[in-house]
Amino acid sequence: MMQASFWEQDAIAQAHCVVVGAGLVGLQTALALRARLARGRIVVLERGVLPAGASSRNAGFACFGSLTEILSDIDAHGVEATLDLVERRWRGISLLREQIGDAAMEYQVLGGHELIRQAEYPALARLEEANALLRPLFKETVFSLDQRGLAHAGFGRDVSALVRNPFEGQLHSGLAMQALRSLAVRNDIDVINGAAVERIVQDGHGVDLLLAGGIRFRAQAVAVCTNALIPALLPELDIVPGRGQIIVTEPVLELPWRGCFHLEQGYYYFRNIGDRVLLGGGRNIDFAAEASTELALTQPVQAALERMLAETILPGRPIRIASRWAGVMGFTADKQPLVKRCGEHVVAGFGCNGMGVALSPLVATETARLLLPG
Q1: 0.85 cut: is pTM over it?
Q2: What is the pLDDT of residues 191-226, one digit of tens each?
Q3: Residues ≥6 apart with Cβ < 8 Å to 6
Q4: Which residues, 6+ apart, have CB-to-CB distance to 239 below 8 Å?
Q5: How far apart are CA 94 and CA 92, in angstroms?
Q6: What phi and psi, each to the nearest 5 degrees, are found at residue 221?
């Protein structure tokens, strides 16, 4: 086991604030802490060479919920909780765009769409119900039938309707993470990769973070922002992992549509990346098997994605898969963000539930405020 030198332990492994996790929530939490702490060292510890959860392994959707997902949430959690969550997602997207800038992350407002098949057809009868609830927030109609778009898209015969939402956008997740990391460095925040925190030990004066390899970090305050991996360090928190698997095609000749698309209450999602198609989802095939933090591809989900691509999204078109990967999301039972003090010097900041892009700015601000009040 490697031992830290006096110099390392006396300076490098000491900080006023440590953020565990260099994903969307972690980097934005560090920036929010810097806004509250003009002087003092802030360090972000990331276990992977790259962010190891979902932030650079997601689909790059800037969305706040499809029609069927919002209706399902209303039925499960009530109108008030659902509208509050939609409002926070929408506000968070605006804040992320302000912080990073559209050009830096290739943000495009191409609209969101939902494919309606027989199982989802009852949702159309509640379309105006959803619009009436959302109109005070958006000041316009959010969901509308898009028959012209459906006719032009060339989807499979199982798709009976297309619901359009003009507000949703998409972004380049890798560029967004690069922009946030650069912003952190410019604000005198140290980001250390390959620093896997294995245990957190609190005492009356601060926190020891025990890293793989025997290194010990000492901090006065710690924010744990590791998404689905939070329970490994704070087991008292009820956060369940959910793996998201994704495929990306080679460029498709004359791809007939652009934008973000949802199916089955958001359990499947696809978008264009230029002329490529990104398709992800399928964890609803086997929730138990996909409740995993392992970044692995599984045959049932990959087969379902390929079938969806060939039968529903691009029927009759030649398709070649260029890339496949998996990311890990975290979920709470009520789908609400979770910002919670876990001892005198530690705060957990979690906001994802599949909507980390949208919720990360607000969760970061709340985490920093709770960690450094006043």
Answers
A1: yes
A2: 999 999 999 999 989 999 999 988 999 999 999 999
A3: none
A4: 228, 230, 231, 330, 331, 332, 338, 350
A5: 5
A6: -150, 145
Which residues, 6 or more positions from 195, have their beta carbon under 8 angstroms from its beta carbon? 45, 46, 47, 211, 215, 217
Which residue bears the tokens 């409740």? 291
Residue 359 backbone dihedrals phi, psi, to 5 degrees = -90, -15
Please tell me the distance from the alpha carbon of residue 194 to that of residue 357, in angstroms, as a whole number: 24
For 52-77, the pLDDT digits (tens) are 667 889 999 999 999 999 999 999 99
Confidence of residue 151 (pLDDT cuts 50, 70, 90): very high
Could you tell me how far CA 59 lies from the centroid of its own chain?
9
- Give the pairing type, strands 338-341 and 346-350: antiparallel
pLDDT tens digits for range 247-286: 999 999 999 999 999 999 899 999 999 999 999 999 999 9
Question: Around 33, how many Cα atoms within 13 Å sit in the side-chain half-sphere?
Answer: 33
The length of the chain is 374
Tokens linked to 268: 């499947």
